[in-house]
Design goal:
By secondary structure, this protein is α+β, with helices and mostly antiparallel strands. The chain has one domain. Helix content is 24%, strand content 30%. Strands 1-2-3 form a three-stranded antiparallel sheet. Strand 2 and strand 3 form a beta hairpin. The protein is globular. The termini are far apart. Bound molecules: zinc ion (ZN). Zinc ion binds next to loops.
Length: 104
């Protein structure tokens, strides 16, 4: 689920480089909505986005400072589910595919 508890993830893009000795790629960019203040924000570097050694990252709302550490498994699941890196883009693609699949 893109809902992590404190944030709703809209886009997750992995960083270009994969650090050694980690199971999951580092997170490069996250676009998320804060569920506390409904701020929609994009983070790509500290302090908004802090990669955790070994996998996962902590993201911080740019408006209210709400913070949550999200596991590497969660990010990997998101990226697997939305290979475009985007929840919205995946929905549009699914919508287009279902229309194309309809007869008539
Ligand atoms: Zn917030």
């Amino acid at each position: 689920m893109p809902n992590t508890g404190k944030f709703h993830l809209y886009e997750v893009a992995p960083a270009d480089s994969v650090p050694d000795n980690t199971t999951y790629p580092a997170v490069g960019v996250v676009r998320a909505e804060c569920l506390s203040c409904f701020n929609l924000f994009t983070v790509c570097e500290e302090p908004g986005l802090t990669n955790i050694p070994g996998g996962g990252a902590a993201i911080v709302c740019s408006k209210c400072g709400s913070r949550q550490a999200i596991s590497g498994a969660r990010f990997a699941e998101f990226i697997e589910r939305f290979p475009t890196g985007s929840d919205a883009a995946a929905r549009l693609i699914a919508m287009a595919n279902s229309k194309a699949g309809m007869s008539e």
